[in-house]
Automatic annotation (TrEMBL):
PROSITE patterns: PPM_2
Cross-referenced InterPro entries: PPM-type-like_dom_sf, PPM-type_phosphatase-like_dom, Znf_ribbon
Identification of the protein by name: Protein phosphatase 2C domain-containing protein
Residue ranges, compositional bias (Basic and acidic residues): 88-106
Domain PPM-type phosphatase as annotated: residue spans: 167-423
Domain of life: Bacteria
Signal peptide from the UniProt entry: none
Pfam families found in the cross-reference section: PP2C_2, Zn_ribbon_3
Annotated stretches, region: Disordered: 41-115
Length: 433
């Protein structure tokens, strides 16, 4: 078997003149295949191979010898020369319109090769697009949500939320004084067992003195709405379904007390995660409300000549004073203890007492479900009716936006959340105009 002894005589690569070692089959610098010279002994021994037949007549251009002057020799451009192959056969004249590289035909397909995992591991991960401050429009926002340039806190996702679901809508806003939005809501449309339509809204207000109030309100609103949407189509009476929804919301908030995140954020002056809850379910002829805490439901008829009404009673110190006959309503709500709540959802709450009530309005109207961030600026039913737009039944989202704007114009001292629902529930598929 031949051991390719001829390659031992090669001292330089024929392609790049790189020095070679004995036994090299490829040039380490340019990768030239030295084994291709195995069949040309003359070339391996360092002498040029004889020209092929007919090649002697080819006039190869030679380099110009430099003269005594400093002027360099003339440069031949590729387009100046008549191309010829090494076997003496002529080639077509070069295309003066551009450079053309003649090459061997390429295969139609190339074998796929898996990437080297070592190279892939060295590739840097793509950098996330840096968030720009909404205030100065120049600084980069850090992971804590503050601008590194001006220090401005950036808006969170829950700072302002709007949702429209068929004929109902809700809006929630952080307000002008709080650093985050601790309110949450859920709205939905479904059908009862007999196929008639039903709409619902849940509004929750996180207790600011508790741990993770924003998580509490979100967990409660989701648990309550999920329970209602699951129970109503299976024939559960809306008032019973509302009771079960409040119990489910209470369990969801209680579960937060055992999570590691609560232990990490707990401070000596804080209680377990807690929130209030208020909700409404509307069918073709029935209005059901449920609540724990001081968030409210108002009834506003389309015919504003008919009286509006507040449909809930607060779980608060002021309400207790009025109910006990110790103060009138004006005196109780003027007291600094007025808004201290006596009922809430949370692991450290007193015994849970869900409140539910059913109504059968005799005329069309709208139901306003809201936190105290709104009703602090329109407390009486008549005041609420005055700020509810006349077309609220057909434009619920616009009406919810107007009501939130009313609270912000009044000072926006608290988070404000409001849902607007028409009564009776319109047929399935109907939406706002």
């Amino acid at each position: 078997m031949s051991q390719m002894p001829q390659q031992a005589a090669l001292s330089k690569c024929p392609s790049c003149a790189e020095p070679l070692q004995s036994g090299d089959r490829f040039c380490e610098k340019c990768g030239y295949d030295l084994s291709a010279l195995a069949d040309t002994p003359a070339a391996v021994n360092g002498t040029a191979p004889p020209p092929p037949p007919g090649a002697a007549d080819v006039a190869w251009p030679g380099a110009s010898e430099p003269d005594s002057s400093d002027t360099p020799a003339a440069v031949h451009l590729p387009a100046d020369l008549q191309g010829s192959a090494s076997d003496g056969r002529g080639r077509p004249p070069a295309d003066h319109g551009g450079v053309r590289f003649d090459r061997a035909p390429e295969p139609d397909e190339y074998p796929l090769q898996a990437p080297d995992p070592r190279i892939a591991a060295e590739q840097p991960a793509p950098a996330e697009a840096a968030k720009v401050c909404v205030a100065c429009r120049a600084g980069r926002v850090d992971h804590d949500g503050y601008c590194e340039n001006c220090g401005h806190a950036q808006p969170r996702e829950r700072d302002h939320m709007e949702q429209e679901c068929g004929p109902i809508a809700a809006v929630s806003d952080r307000g002008l004084r709080h650093h985050r939005n601790e309110d949450a809501f859920a709205v939905g449309c479904t059908a009862l067992a007999d196929g008639s339509p039903a709409v619902l809204a849940i509004v929750c207000d996180g207790v600011s003195s508790a741990t993770r109030p924003d998580d509490a309100s979100l967990a409660a609103s989701r648990a309550a709405s999920d329970t209602l949407l699951a129970a109503l189509p299976h024939g559960t009476h809306p008032q019973q379904a509302m009771h079960e929804a409040i119990v489910a919301a209470s369990r969801a908030v209680n579960a937060l007390a055992g999570e590691p995140a609560t232990a990490r954020e707990h401070a000596p002056h804080q209680n377990a995660p807690a929130c209030t809850l208020v909700g409404a379910v509307i069918t073709s002829g029935l209005l059901v409300v449920g609540w724990v805490g001081d968030s409210r439901v108002y009834w506003v008829p389309v015919d504003r000549s008919a009286p509006p009404a507040r449909l809930t009673e607060d779980d608060s110190w002021a309400a207790q004073m009025v109910a006990a006959g110790l103060m009138n309503e004006a005196e109780a709500y003027a007291d600094e203890r007025a808004h201290a709540i006596t009922g809430w959802l949370g692991a450290d709450a007193y015994e849970l007492e869900p409140h539910t009530a059913s109504f059968k309005p005799d005329r069309p109207g709208v139901v306003v479900v809201c936190t105290d961030g709104l009703w602090n600026y329109a407390e009486a039913a008549e005041e609420m009716a005055d700020v509810v737009p006349l077309d609220a039944a057909v434009r619920p989202l616009h009406s919810a936006q107007v009501l939130v704007g009313h609270a912000l114009d009044g000072g926006g001292h608290d988070n404000v959340t409001v849902a607007v629902l028409p009564f009776p529930a319109p047929p399935m598929g109907a939406g706002s105009a």
